[in-house]
Design goal:
Layout: H1 11-26, E1 30-35, H2 38-54, E2 58-63, E3 84-88, E4 105-108, E5 111-117, E6 122-128, H3 130-141, H4 146-152, H5 154-160, H6 164-167, H7 171-182, E7 187-189, H8 207-216, H9 222-237, H10 244-252, E8 254-256, H11 264-272, H12 279-296
Parallel strand pairs: 1-2, 1-3, 3-4
Antiparallel strand pairs: 5-6, 7-8
Length: 303
């Protein structure tokens, strides 16, 4: 597993992760604090995995999911005497820098970052999801932890769920996807190559046409594959409000964890559609989903 801290351009986030790790390791116990929403839970799971790998004491403190709040949760965090609180506060707006860790608080928020892409090293700017910072922190805490490795790919899902791909290219998602594929954490496959046909297809895409393409895929050369996929995807391109960058990822670059029945993007959609409408039930459900992530590296299991 190649550390995310080695990605060119993420030096500031890597330095923050190293500083935060020292505070966490010095604490007698750790409290994991955040709303019971999927993106926040993915961030907390990164840290929880490291603490389990280390055998360190901790506890979760999930608060009300955002959909039950009149306003987004603020940056204020309830202190815990004698403990280090690791709190996540995801949201659409990125902070210009990481939050400086204090003696008793490590805050995970979206932050602006720049990465180098391509052979010419073009610098691209974007927002880094808190889950990615959490994964970097987890690597510093337990660099060889098997649970840390198991849940790391889930941080890619949280980056995917940010809005950048709905408007344009997301350099953070691209560099993270390629990094995780390069070290074997995930495979990146097309819609015709996933182990199972996704439960959730892009709007307008016909399942029958995709099935026909999948059956013939292994016999097609590169040109025929591109032509066949274009025919399958054309109705989706004509759908109102289609985001081309996101659709391209859904069609050509689906992240799949070896051994899992469905790719990560399909699992994320299933998880979103499986949210309880009751506030208390939603928090219990998210805690159970965190257990699933830690135990099996999955976001969702089909009933």
């Amino acid at each position: 597993m190649d550390p995310l801290s080695g990605i060119n351009g993420l030096e500031q986030a890597a330095a923050w992760a190293q500083q935060a790790a020292a505070l966490v390791l010095d604490a007698s116990t750790v409290v994991l604090d955040g709303p019971g929403d999927l993106d926040d839970a993915i961030a907390l799971v990164q840290i929880e995995a490291a603490l389990l790998d280390l055998g360190r004491p901790y506890r979760r403190r999930l608060t009300r999911p955002r959909r039950f709040l009149d306003a987004p949760p603020g940056l204020s965090v309830e202190p815990e005497p004698g403990a280090c609180v690791v709190a996540v506060r995801d949201g659409p707006d990125a902070h210009p820098t990481t939050q400086v860790p204090s003696d008793s608080l490590v805050m995970l928020v979206p932050v602006t970052a720049s990465v180098s892409l391509g052979r010419d090293g073009t610098v691209r700017h974007g927002a880094l999801a808190p889950s990615v910072s959490a994964a970097m922190l987890a690597e510093h805490l337990a660099p060889t932890g098997h649970r840390v490795r198991r849940v790391r790919a889930l941080a890619l899902v949280a980056q995917w769920r940010r809005g950048a791909l709905d408007a344009a290219f997301d350099p953070m998602y691209t560099v993270l996807r390629d990094h995780c594929a390069g070290d074997g954490t995930i495979r990146v496959v097309s819609l015709a190559e996933t182990d199972a046909v996704p439960n959730h297809l892009p709007p307008g895409l016909q399942r029958a046409l995709l099935g026909r393409l999948r059956r013939s895929w292994s016999r097609l050369d590169l040109e025929a594959r591109a032509r066949g996929m274009s025919e399958v995807v054309l109705p989706s391109l004509l759908e109102p409000g289609t985001a081309t960058a996101r659709l391209e990822e859904l069609v050509w670059h689906r992240p799949s964890v070896p051994g899992q029945p469905h790719d990560l993007l399909d699992q994320a959609t299933s998880a979103d559609l499986d949210l309880p409408g009751d506030e208390d039930e939603a928090m219990v459900s998210m805690s159970r989903r965190m257990d699933l992530m830690l135990r099996e590296g999955l976001l969702h299991v089909d009933a």
